[in-house]
Amino acid sequence: MPLAIRAGRLIDGTGAAPVPHALILVEDDRFTVVAREEEGAIPAGFDVVDASAHTVIPGMIDAHVHIRGSGDPGDRGFGESDSIPTLTLKCLRNAVRSLEAGFTTLRDAACAHYADIAVRDAIHRGELVGPRLWCCGLGITSTSGHMDREKGLAPHLHVDGLNNVADGPVEARRVVRQNLRFDVDFIKINATLTEHVRRYQGYCAPEMTADPMAAIFEEAHWHGRRVTAHCYGGPGATWAIEGGIDGIEHGFYLTDEQLAAMAERGTVLCPTLSVVGRFREMGQAALPPGQPHLEAWRKKAIAAAWDMVGRAKQQGVKIIAGTDAAMPYVRHGTTAYELEMLVEAGLTPMEAIVACTGGAAEAIDFQDVGAVKTGRFADLVFVDADPLADIRVLNQPEHIRAVIKGGKFIKGDPAASATAAPARKTA
Q1: Which of 236, 215, 209, 235 is nearest to 227 (CA)?
Q2: Which of 27, 115, 232, 415 is the most buried (most CB within 10 A)?
């Protein structure tokens, strides 16, 4: 049944001023009319949803998650011990937690065994209920890099499965094309890492050299995919930015010069402040045991991250919201915590909302989501408070009264009842 939604106030995800008393018509899974209530009419046969006491926003986007891990302390989501069926079920469970919190789209920034692709496709076919997934399959790394699956194993051991290691341009092209076999939505690489330099009090070191990066960018762009990088700063960040990468994830130690280059080139920043927010909140409990150098790195990250985001905003860098859910205490379903962190870093509440709606959709190249516009997917969140006055309400489940994905209620109903309305001009 098509829906007619009377919204007390609409924040449409574009950054435009909120629209009071909005009328939103939904047919099938798309928005067909978005107008002021006095300017529109409700056709016969539409179910009317009275959200006149609510703020309505687009379904939100978490632009950096790992659905393979829960974020619970001690979760083994990034190990290789789970069977593929177990891993896939965990991916679905974690994705649904975010959906129920109002995040109707997730960008999964590297999984294992292409389990993210399997879940994405089953949701798209309607076989499973879950958020829309934007997936990269395997993250591309180098030997001993951030996502080298054999790092830390005894030298006589080998992990079976498709290889995501690329130490040169030829291997880099091979791994991109391997991901394309599974119709990935984007490509994720690892440009810098911190593991090798923590004991020397270093911020980050290059993980992948400029030549394989350039091959990845060219191959991916040939096939219409954007590329983003796990990257904290240093020369690896410079090579990535100058080489034409589309996005930087984390970026805690980016310099003013690097940020200026990103602003000039349109390189997007996804700072994942939730990680350092939980570092600050939980202290050493958020760190895995047996890595004594992590505590110093944790303190450096806390000192740098919010400042970097503030400088990025001043430079005009496009900032989007992603949590890195699956990191310690960064749990799926608490993803709007990232918006609180972005506001602390200097974004306005409206800018933070755009960073997880229309701005994120544009940045990740998923143009059918993120905004309440005619023709886009009918994904909505109904909030019984004002997120522009207090962004924290989006991370408080009691204020998320309903979630719609593709014109269907996933959670709740802001109205006591919905009744078919005759054709008439709304008052």
Answers
A1: 215
A2: 232
Interval 179-221: pLDDT, tens: 999 999 999 999 998 877 877 878 889 999 999 999 999 999 9
Is pTM beyond 0.90? Reply is: yes
Task: Give me the domain span that covers residue 13.
Answer: 3-58+371-425
pLDDT at residue 43 above 50?
yes
54 and 112, same domain (yes or no)? no
Residue (of 386, 410, 408) closest to 396 by Cα position = 386
Q: What are phi and psi of 373, to 5 degrees?
A: -135, 150
In this predicted model, what pLDDT tens digit does every residue of 280-336 receive, in sequence order? 999 888 887 777 788 888 889 999 999 999 999 999 999 999 999 999 999 999 989
Task: Count structural domains, the chain.
Answer: 2
Q: What CATH number is attached to the domain comprising 380?
A: 2.30.40.10
Same domain assignment for residues 93 and 138: yes
Q: Tokens standing for 344? A: 């602390």
> Are 48 and 77 members of one domain?
no
Domain end (from 346, 364, 382):
364
Angle at 132 between CA 391 and CA 230, to 5 degrees: 70
**H/E run at residue 281:** helix 273-282
Same domain, 243 and 341: yes
Cα separation, 122 vs 135, in Å, equals: 13
Q: Which string of DSSP letters, residue by residue, matches 191-254? A: -EESTTTGGGT-S-EESS-HHHHHHHHHHHHHTT--EEEEE-SHHHHHHHHHHT-SEEEE-TT-
> Do residues 145 and 204 touch, judged by C-beta distance below 8 A?
no
Residues 189 and 164 occupy one common structural domain: yes
